[in-house]
Each structure stands twice: as structure tokens, then as C-alpha cells.
Specification:
Belongs to the short-chain dehydrogenases/reductases (SDR) family. InterPro entries: NAD(P)-bd_dom_sf, SDR_fam. The structure is a single chain. The protein is of the alpha/beta class and about 240 residues long. It contains 7 helices and 7 strands. Strand 5, helix 5 and strand 6 form a beta-alpha-beta unit. The longest helix has 29 residues. The protein is globular, with a radius of gyration of 17 Å.
């Protein structure tokens, strides 16, 4: 039997990047997957690529009505919601004095408020089932300092994870956060970036950056019944950076 056999999984920010890979891994383990994203063109193309057990829904993760629409469409299509992966997120490479309030609040709404809205939306459905797993993608910058706004929201996701886990645990709903470090993506291969990454790798205890699959494997684990006694916890994938 596959690890996510017949589980219904919602993944935000699923049109591309890590969200798409989470979806691929979940489908390979027997899940039915709803990917949501603000980018409708890429989302539709990804859902078509993923096959008949994938559904795309256009979704502004900072909008409460959009969240209600996602839940309704998923239940109508697949009958239930077993897993929510709050994956959508953005950042700006700006310092404290350079970032505008509008940009700051955009990061807060997409990275932080979306997690609150998603958790609030699926909680009643999972309570009825007396089962569920909510996986919040934070960052190693939810454990240690980093860029303003981004770090703030990733610490907030960690706190919301713990608060939600305590409240929802009587209903057998688990809530955990995942904290990736530096992930090997095409961005790291860009000229001027690759050299900096090579130097940074020397400071990582495991002496390498993470492969994208290593994050998705953790997501699959937390979505599965193998993690049935884990809740309110941080799962760190950073090669040991935050252990220093």
C-alpha cells in the first residue's frame, strides 16, 4: 500500500517550484492532490501534466473567500480534505530601511495570514473526520535571523503551528512546521550566485545544500500515518546550520 493511499492533499503555491514537487511526490504515493496558485496559466498546465488525480484552483492565499472556495471545490471533487500543505510564500531582498510598508504587509499576508486562513478553513472539515495533517512550510529563518519581513513571518508560522497543534490535537489533527535551509534550485546556478553558494557550503556542517526532494520527502512523511504521533514540532532540513 502506498504511503498516502486515497488521502486528499491541498498544496498552496503548487503551480511550480517546490509546491509542484510536493504534488508530484504526493501523487506518486497514492494521494489525490489539489494545487492552488495565483498563476492560473502555470497552474492549469501543471495540473494537466500531473494527471487525472490532480485539480488546479486559482487562489489568492491572503483572501478568506478564496479559501472557502478552495475547500468547497476540493470536497466537491474528492469528498474530503486530509492534508493541507501551506507552501505559498514570497520574499524581497531588501533591508529594514529599504522595504516599504506595502511590501512588508504583502509578505505578511502571503507568508503568514495565509497559514492562519488555511488552517481556519480546513479545521472544521478535519474535525468531522477526526483526522488530519497540516504542514506549514516555514524556513531556517523561522529559527534564526535573516531578511526583515521574511524572517518575521517565518517565525510567526512557527508560533501559529504550535498554537494550532495544541488546539486541534484533541481532534487527532496534527500541525507541524518544516524549516528548509538552502535548497538546490536553478537560481543557485546563476552567474554570480554559484560562487557565493560554493563558499557558503563550507559553513554547512553537511558540506552541501539540500536537494529539493529532501524537502518533499519530509512533507510526504508528515502527511502520512507514519508521523501520527508528531505534532507541534519543527522539522529542520538545513544540513545542520541552525545547530551551530
Amino acid at each position: 500500500m502506498k504511503r498516502l493511499e486515497d488521502k486528499v492533499v491541498i498544496i498552496t503555491g503548487g503551480a511550480q517550484g517546490m509546491g509542484k514537487l510536493h504534488a508530484e511526490k504526493a501523487l506518486a504515493q497514492g494521494a489525490k492532490v489539489a494545487i492552488t496558485d495565483i498563476n492560473e496559466e502555470k497552474g492549469q498546465a501543471t495540473a494537466k501534466e500531473l494527471g487525472e488525480n490532480a485539480l488546479f484552483i486559482k487562489h489568492d492565499v491572503s483572501n478568506e473567500e478564496d479559501w472557502k472556495n478552495v475547500a468547497n471545490q476540493v470536497v466537491e471533487k474528492f469528498g474530503r480534505v486530509d492534508v493541507l500543505v501551506n507552501n505559498a510564500g514570497i520574499t524581497y531582498n531588501k533591508g529594514l530601511e529599504d522595504i516599504s510598508l506595502d511590501d512588508y504587509m504583502k509578505i505578511v499576508n502571503i507568508n503568514q495570514v495565509s497559514v492562519f486562513l488555511g488552517t481556519k478553513t480546513v479545521a472544521p472539515l478535519m474535525k468531522e473526520q477526526k483526522n488530519g495533517s497540516i504542514i506549514n512550510i516555514s524556513s531556517m529563518n523561522g529559527l534564526v535571523g535573516g531578511a526583515p519581513a521574511y524572517t518575521d513571518t517565518k517565525f510567526a508560522v512557527r508560533g501559529l503551528t504550535k498554537a494550532s497543534a495544541r488546539e486541534l490535537s484533541p481532534f487527532n489533527i496534527r500541525v507541524n512546521s518544516v524549516h528548509p535551509g538552502v535548497i538546490q534550485t536553478p537560481m543557485l546556478e546563476q552567474e554570480g550566485v554559484k560562487e557565493a553558494v560554493e563558499e557558503f557550503k563550507k559553513t554547512i556542517p553537511l558540506r552541501r545544500v539540500a536537494q529539493p526532494e529532501e524537502v518533499s520527502d519530509m512533507v510526504v512523511f508528515l502527511a502520512s500515518d507514519e508521523a501520527r504521533y508528531s505534532t507541534g514540532s519543527e522539522f529542520v532540513i538545513d544540513g545542520g546550520i541552525t545547530a551551530l
